[in-house]
């Protein structure tokens, strides 16, 4: 996301409309990438934001990459316990989504 802290996410652009259209037609080719990716911020609350198709694909992509890294690491630095990678990334992105939602102007603010 090119951010140092999750609260900076509200200032970053969201996934463009044109990319979401492409994603709807070909999710494999036009889905979220690991580097320089976006979050879909078109939701009024964090629960809805996390349930958006783009964000679900982003969570799955990040979880798959984490699983791949762990599986291909020959030493035991990650331990042997099963990890719910999707759950961990969903939790992390929920904090980002909360920062995005709370950073928006509230009713009556200018």
What's the quick description here?
This protein is mainly α and 110 residues long. 52% of the residues lie in helices and 0% in strands.
Describe the overall structure.
Helix content is 52%, strand content 0%. It has one domain (6-103). It has helices at residues 17-25, 27-30, 46-51, 53-71, 85-103. With 110 residues, it is an all-alpha fold. The protein is built from five helices and no strands.
Principal-axis shape equals globular
Q: How many helix segments?
A: 5
What is the H-and-E element order?
HHHHH
Distance between the termini: 27 Å
Helix content: 40-55%
User: Sheet bearing the most strands, described?
Assistant: none
Residue windows where pLDDT falls under 50 for at least 5 positions: none
What is the assembly state of the chains in this entry? single chain
Radius of gyration: 16 Å
Question: What distinguishing features does this structure have?
Answer:
globular, 110 residues, 5 helices, mainly alpha
Please render the helix and strand layout as text.
Layout: H1 17-25, H2 27-30, H3 46-51, H4 53-71, H5 85-103
Helix pairs in contact: 4-5
């Amino acid at each position: 996301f090119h951010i140092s802290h999750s609260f900076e996410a509200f200032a970053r652009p969201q996934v463009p409309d044109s990319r979401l259209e492409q994603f709807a037609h070909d999710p494999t080719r036009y889905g979220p990438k690991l580097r320089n990716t976006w979050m879909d911020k078109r939701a009024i609350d964090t629960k809805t934001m996390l349930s958006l198709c783009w964000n679900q694909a982003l969570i799955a992509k990040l979880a798959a990459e984490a699983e791949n890294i762990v599986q291909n690491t020959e030493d035991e630095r990650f331990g042997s316990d099963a990890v719910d990678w999707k759950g961990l990334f969903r939790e992390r992105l929920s904090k980002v989504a909360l920062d995005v939602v709370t950073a928006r102007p509230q009713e009556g603010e200018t």
